[in-house]
Design a protein that fits this description.
Strand content: 35-45%
Radius of gyration: 20 Å
Strand order of the largest sheet: 1-2-5-4-3-6
Number of helices: 3
Shape: elongated
Largest sheet: 6 strands, antiparallel, barrel
Order of helices and strands: EEHEEEHEEHEEEEEEE
């Protein structure tokens, strides 16, 4: 039997109007298929949220001024909608089902792939972290350390799941220490990952439609 994984398909970003509508940030190229009436999602919310552990079911999905907006069962007013802002929506998906988007992969397809730089294996993908601004491949290198690789086309130009590898063209200093200048501080080994509320999307992304 096929296994199951969870895919991230959207984030609730802003209450819209007074009747419980919520604007969405989409992590899917098939919103009409994912947000059909009756579709039910698992919510990623803080444990302190009144919605923690509860499912969320679509009542209606529509576009308003080019923005995706959804109404959900049990969300009848703006106050209730505000309780759900920043919640991430997940669905169950068969692991053997291929994603419908181009240049998109499920997390389980990426984890375990060799990371190749200049025809040399430099590490292995151990997980994929998802943030509003971009996704990150977490790569374990030979030393056992973890390197955070932004999952964008400029740095990860090729993903070859059948061959078991991803090709990277990282900037200097991402996988190795840079030589220090006499008057300069050594460059950090890995970049910091700043997480904010930006709603940018990366050129390539893992579907956490993860």
């Amino acid at each position: 039997m096929a296994g199951k994984t969870q895919l991230r398909v959207g984030r609730l970003v802003k209450a819209h109007g007074l009747k419980g509508a919520i604007k969405l940030e989409l992590y899917t190229d098939d919103p009409a298929g994912r947000f059909v009436t009756g579709a039910t999602f698992t919510l990623q919310v803080p444990e302190s949220s009144p919605w923690h552990g509860k499912p969320l079911t679509v009542r209606e999905f529509r576009w308003m001024n080019s923005h995706p907006v959804a109404f959900f069962d049990g969300v009848e007013d703006r106050e209730t909608a505000e309780e759900l802002i920043r919640a991430i929506l997940w669905i169950d998906q068969d692991t053997q089902t291929a994603p419908v988007e181009d240049d998109a992969w499920f997390d389980h397809q990426l984890v375990g792939l060799d990371v190749v730089r200049d025809d040399t294996i430099v590490g292995r993908v151990i997980r994929v972290d998802h943030f509003p601004a971009q996704d990150l491949l977490i790569v374990r290198v030979a030393s056992g350390e973890e390197v955070l690789v932004p999952f964008v086309k400029a740095i990860v130009p090729e993903v070859d799941v059948p061959a078991g590898r991803v090709v990277v063209t990282p900037p200097a200093g991402l996988f190795e220490e840079l030589p220090a200048d006499d008057d300069a501080e050594p460059a950090p080994r890995t970049p910091s990952a700043e997480v904010d509320d930006a709603e940018d999307s990366s050129d390539s992304e893992a579907l956490s439609e993860d």
